[in-house]
Amino acid sequence: MTQRPTPGTLYRFPPQARAHAEATVTALGYRPFPVSLQACHDKAGVLQQFARTLAFPAWFGHNWDALADCLGDLSWLPVQPFDGQTTPPGIALILVDCTTLAHTEPDTLATLLDILDELTHDATPNHPAPWALVEADSGHPVTDTLPELPGDH
Question: How far apart are CA 18 and CA 59, in angstroms?
Protein backbone atom coordinates (compact mmCIF):
# COMPACT_ATOMS: atom_id res chain seq x y z
CA MET A 1 0.00 0.00 0.00
CA THR A 2 1.37 3.40 -0.99
CA GLN A 3 1.67 6.02 1.72
CA ARG A 4 -0.21 9.26 1.05
CA PRO A 5 1.96 12.40 1.09
CA THR A 6 1.37 14.94 3.83
CA PRO A 7 0.78 18.44 2.44
CA GLY A 8 3.21 20.90 3.93
CA THR A 9 5.99 18.33 4.31
CA LEU A 10 9.13 19.23 2.38
CA TYR A 11 9.76 16.25 0.07
CA ARG A 12 12.32 15.41 -2.58
CA PHE A 13 11.62 13.46 -5.73
CA PRO A 14 13.89 12.11 -8.49
CA PRO A 15 14.02 14.02 -11.80
CA GLN A 16 12.15 11.29 -13.65
CA ALA A 17 9.19 11.78 -11.25
CA ARG A 18 8.44 15.43 -12.04
CA ALA A 19 5.07 14.59 -13.64
CA HIS A 20 4.18 12.48 -10.58
CA ALA A 21 5.03 15.40 -8.25
CA GLU A 22 2.82 17.82 -10.20
CA ALA A 23 -0.03 15.30 -10.40
CA THR A 24 0.21 14.59 -6.65
CA VAL A 25 -0.06 18.21 -5.57
CA THR A 26 -2.82 18.91 -8.08
CA ALA A 27 -4.84 15.90 -6.88
CA LEU A 28 -4.61 17.23 -3.33
CA GLY A 29 -5.94 20.67 -4.32
CA TYR A 30 -2.68 22.58 -4.67
CA ARG A 31 -1.81 24.78 -7.62
CA PRO A 32 1.67 23.78 -8.83
CA PHE A 33 4.31 26.43 -9.49
CA PRO A 34 7.40 24.82 -11.01
CA VAL A 35 10.41 26.98 -10.10
CA SER A 36 13.43 26.13 -12.25
CA LEU A 37 16.74 26.75 -10.52
CA GLN A 38 18.76 25.63 -13.54
CA ALA A 39 20.22 29.07 -14.31
CA CYS A 40 20.61 30.01 -10.64
CA HIS A 41 24.20 30.09 -9.48
CA ASP A 42 23.75 32.18 -6.33
CA LYS A 43 21.26 33.70 -3.90
CA ALA A 44 20.45 36.63 -6.21
CA GLY A 45 19.57 34.24 -9.03
CA VAL A 46 17.33 32.16 -6.77
CA LEU A 47 15.47 35.22 -5.52
CA GLN A 48 15.07 36.58 -9.05
CA GLN A 49 13.71 33.25 -10.29
CA PHE A 50 11.13 33.10 -7.50
CA ALA A 51 10.09 36.70 -8.21
CA ARG A 52 9.73 35.97 -11.92
CA THR A 53 7.95 32.61 -11.59
CA LEU A 54 5.43 33.75 -8.99
CA ALA A 55 5.13 37.35 -10.25
CA PHE A 56 5.97 38.78 -6.84
CA PRO A 57 4.68 42.27 -6.09
CA ALA A 58 6.86 45.32 -6.71
CA TRP A 59 7.64 45.63 -3.00
CA PHE A 60 9.58 42.33 -2.99
CA GLY A 61 12.99 43.22 -1.52
CA HIS A 62 15.16 40.50 -3.12
CA ASN A 63 16.46 39.09 0.16
CA TRP A 64 15.68 36.01 2.24
CA ASP A 65 13.36 37.87 4.63
CA ALA A 66 11.37 39.30 1.72
CA LEU A 67 11.06 35.82 0.19
CA ALA A 68 9.73 34.48 3.49
CA ASP A 69 7.31 37.43 3.72
CA CYS A 70 5.94 36.90 0.20
CA LEU A 71 5.56 33.15 0.66
CA GLY A 72 4.24 33.43 4.20
CA ASP A 73 1.37 35.74 3.26
CA LEU A 74 -0.04 34.99 -0.18
CA SER A 75 -2.64 37.77 -0.09
CA TRP A 76 -0.80 39.47 -2.98
CA LEU A 77 -1.36 36.41 -5.22
CA PRO A 78 -4.29 36.97 -7.60
CA VAL A 79 -7.14 34.52 -7.11
CA GLN A 80 -7.50 32.42 -10.24
CA PRO A 81 -9.82 29.49 -10.83
CA PHE A 82 -7.86 26.26 -10.64
CA ASP A 83 -8.90 22.77 -11.57
CA GLY A 84 -12.60 23.63 -11.39
CA GLN A 85 -12.30 25.25 -7.96
CA THR A 86 -13.66 28.70 -7.31
CA THR A 87 -11.89 29.16 -3.97
CA PRO A 88 -8.17 29.80 -4.03
CA PRO A 89 -6.25 26.56 -3.49
CA GLY A 90 -2.98 26.23 -1.72
CA ILE A 91 0.11 26.56 -3.83
CA ALA A 92 2.89 24.04 -4.29
CA LEU A 93 6.39 25.16 -5.16
CA ILE A 94 8.04 22.47 -7.22
CA LEU A 95 11.74 23.25 -7.26
CA VAL A 96 13.28 21.70 -10.36
CA ASP A 97 16.73 21.62 -11.94
CA CYS A 98 18.44 22.03 -8.55
CA THR A 99 21.62 20.10 -9.36
CA THR A 100 23.83 23.04 -10.35
CA LEU A 101 22.86 25.08 -7.32
CA ALA A 102 23.31 22.06 -5.04
CA HIS A 103 26.90 21.67 -6.24
CA THR A 104 27.96 25.31 -6.69
CA GLU A 105 26.09 26.95 -3.80
CA PRO A 106 24.97 24.25 -1.34
CA ASP A 107 24.61 26.82 1.45
CA THR A 108 22.20 28.87 -0.69
CA LEU A 109 20.07 25.81 -1.41
CA ALA A 110 20.17 24.82 2.27
CA THR A 111 19.02 28.31 3.32
CA LEU A 112 16.17 28.21 0.78
CA LEU A 113 15.03 24.81 2.06
CA ASP A 114 15.25 26.03 5.66
CA ILE A 115 13.00 28.99 4.81
CA LEU A 116 10.46 26.76 3.08
CA ASP A 117 10.50 24.31 5.98
CA GLU A 118 10.09 27.12 8.54
CA LEU A 119 7.09 28.48 6.64
CA THR A 120 5.26 25.18 7.07
CA HIS A 121 5.73 25.39 10.85
CA ASP A 122 4.37 28.96 10.96
CA ALA A 123 1.27 28.21 8.87
CA THR A 124 -2.21 28.84 10.20
CA PRO A 125 -5.64 28.14 8.67
CA ASN A 126 -5.87 31.80 7.64
CA HIS A 127 -2.29 31.86 6.31
CA PRO A 128 -1.51 28.46 4.82
CA ALA A 129 2.08 27.88 3.82
CA PRO A 130 3.04 26.83 0.34
CA TRP A 131 3.89 23.18 -0.05
CA ALA A 132 7.40 22.66 -1.42
CA LEU A 133 8.83 19.69 -3.25
CA VAL A 134 12.42 19.47 -4.46
CA GLU A 135 13.63 17.63 -7.54
CA ALA A 136 16.92 16.02 -6.58
CA ASP A 137 18.93 12.90 -7.24
CA SER A 138 20.15 11.08 -4.18
CA GLY A 139 23.73 11.56 -3.17
CA HIS A 140 23.77 15.19 -2.12
CA PRO A 141 23.95 16.12 1.58
CA VAL A 142 21.61 19.12 1.27
CA THR A 143 18.68 17.19 -0.21
CA ASP A 144 19.32 13.65 1.06
CA THR A 145 17.90 14.58 4.45
CA LEU A 146 14.48 15.20 2.89
CA PRO A 147 11.98 12.34 2.76
CA GLU A 148 11.14 11.05 -0.70
CA LEU A 149 7.70 11.90 -2.06
CA PRO A 150 5.51 8.82 -1.55
CA GLY A 151 3.79 7.17 -4.48
CA ASP A 152 4.54 5.30 -7.64
CA HIS A 153 7.06 7.08 -9.82
Answer: 32
